[in-house]
Amino acid sequence: MPNPQNKKGLFQFYPHNLLWLGLSVLAIVLDQWTKSIASAHLTYANPVPVLPFLNWTLLHNYGAAFSFLSDAGGWQHYLFTGLAGIVSIIFVFWLMRMPKTTVVLPMAIALILGGAIGNLIDRVTLGYVVDFIHVFYQDHNFPAFNIADSAITLGTILLLIDTFFLEKQRIQRAEAKND
User: Fold this and answer.
1) Is 131 one of the annotated active-site residues of the chain?
2) Which of 80, 95, 137, 173 has the most CB atoms around its CB within 10 Å?
3) What pLDDT, on a 0 to 100 scale, did the predictor assign at position 172?
4) Which residue among 71, 122, 139, 149 is the active-site one?
């Protein structure tokens, strides 16, 4: 039977989790900084070769990830802006309640949060997301992306690792502790 005295309130935050919010802020700052450099120094849709498989190519994404729904007529801007705002608020509350012993999960949440807010800033201030990293191989092109997209992708990979490999260990440790 759960002990009601061990229950934490919805607003029970742990100060050690400010470090994870710092990671989110770092992702946001790096994202916005690199986007401002790309916007100032690149010509729209004009690739600048960097490596045999990488160009800097300034593009504006009016849709979601990889330009999904970019030609939907404008309603998607409000959907993605609202969704990113709501998810960001939920992630801040989730992140601040993480136990000190958990590392991969809060790192994942922090990266996803930072990336979501980085792209949210673009959507709110510009009406589109600035993309500039273009990876390709011969005639095969990966859609252009940015640092925020990279943070979201890395965070999602870490979240999957935590879900499929580490959650079971946490449950087993908690059960052993309660026995």
Assistant:
1) yes
2) 95
3) 79
4) 149
